[in-house]
Amino acid sequence: MPRGRLALRSVFIVSVTIPFLGCESIVGVCAAEPIVVLTGNTMGTTYTIKINPPSVTPTHNPLETAIAQRLDDINQLMSTYIESSEISQFNQSPADQWFPISADTATVVSVAQEIAKETEGAFDISVGPLVGLWNFGSGSDSSVAFAPPTRQHIDSVLEQIGHAKLQCRLDPPALRKTVGQLQIDLSGIAKGFAVDEICQLLLAHNLHDFMVEIGGEVRLSGTRADGQPWNIGIEAPDKASRQLNLVIAPRATAIATSGDYRDFHEYEGIYYSHTIDPRTGRPILHNLAGVTVLAEDCMRADALATALLVMGPEDGNNWAEKHDVAALFVTRTSKGLASSATRRFEVLQSTTGKTQEDGSFPKVLFLSFLIISIALLGMSIGVIISKRRIQGSCGGLAGFTDDQGRTVCDACQHPSPECEGMQATTSTSKATD
């Protein structure tokens, strides 16, 4: 596995859609609607930032440099692939000693611990050893044939993990573990934190209309260049194909999605998801395929999407409704995929059920009308110049014949003067043979 990145433990199924008429794409927009698009690599994935600039366009190079530097700083602190990172060093530290860390890392761990308590362990940043036991994450080895670990091995690792075995303080920032083997992995929350940090950076540059996306985690502010809300597409959780399941247009919110369908092992006809339940030590077995969460900040949305996926369709929905969380659940059924949303999700997003196909019909209709209008305009200009009426191509009429077997087009050998573009002699001289 490559070094220098955060472990990708969640599968993200949020993608940026192409707005109406294709004027905007992932790399830019039409000339009438200027937009700044910045892209790059970070944390083992990619990022895309779209900015609708004010009248005074910001200097791109300093902004790009500041963004790249901030992302690199976060990666250097929180990556389990970098041996010198704070997280890697803490994972190797002894038990019962406070380990000094940065304020950024302390902030992320503190929020992670809060969510772990709220979800009763469904989200747990100490789950890393279990992920490795099932041959996922930074400890995976693709050259080794997969076989499920034994119950004894699972129980042994469960004794080494658990959010209750980890302590975090903010002032001075430090971590302490009560079990020497305990390790933490921030891949389920750090990308959301990075999205929030880049948003703060843009706001500091007096930019207020933007979309920031890192590895599928998204946060929006303001509107697109055309004044319309940003459109976000949610991918259908399907192992065999990649297509949109839903398009939403939330305003000023963060979106995070977790799914179980891109990274998995198959053993004796059974699929083992990369999403591990920290409470049981085993991959999730229910039929919940993906969860999308809307929240005010991306860090919390990121963690909650993973937690709700672990809980499953019923427990996850009940928990989300109880805590007023905006969540969309996509489950597998015998008839295909089925979606359900919490009441809060319905309030925050504005285009429920707008699928990719639903959105394409108005485009096709408009384009068809535009093409026909242009064609008619061209024909009209030709008629004006040639002083002739518009004549058909005989198409369907060629199938009709007269009593001599001639087609209607062939039979019309003597059109009236009006058909030839001359003034008719009487008002009743229409195009007759």
Q: What would you note in describing this structure?
A:
The structure is a single chain. The chain has 433 residues and is α+β, with helices and mostly antiparallel strands. The protein has 3 domains: 14-354, T-fold (Roll), CATH 3.10.520; 356-386; 393-433, no CATH class. Helices cover 31% and strands 21% of the residues. The protein has 11 helices and 20 strands. It has helices spanning 60-78, 86-91, 103-118, 128-133, 151-158, 190-204, 298-311, 313-322, 343-348, 356-386, 408-411; strands at 14-16, 24-25, 28-29, 36-42, 45-51, 99-100, 166-170, 173-177, 210-214, 217-221, 232-235, 244-248, 254-259, 264-267, 270-273, 276-277, 282-283, 288-295, 326-333, 336-341. The strands form 6 sheets. An 8-stranded antiparallel beta sheet has the order 4-5-9-10-13-18-19-20. The model is unreliable at 7-32, 351-365, 386-402 and 406-433 (pLDDT under 50).
- β content, as a range? 15-25%
Q: How many domains, as an integer?
A: 3
- CATH topology group of the largest domain: T-fold
Nearest-angstrom radius of gyration? 30 Å
Tally of separate helices: 11
* CATH class assignment of the largest domain: Alpha Beta
CATH architecture of the largest domain: Roll
Number of strands: 20
Class by alpha and beta content? alpha+beta
Judging from the principal axes of the Cα atoms, what is the shape? Answer: globular
- Spatial separation of the terminal alpha carbons: 82 Å
Biggest sheet: strand arrangement:
4-5-9-10-13-18-19-20
Low-confidence stretches: 7-32, 351-365, 386-402, 406-433
Query: What is the mean pLDDT?
Result: 77
Share in helix: 25-40%
Largest sheet: 8 strands, antiparallel
CATH superfamily of the largest domain: ApbE-like domains
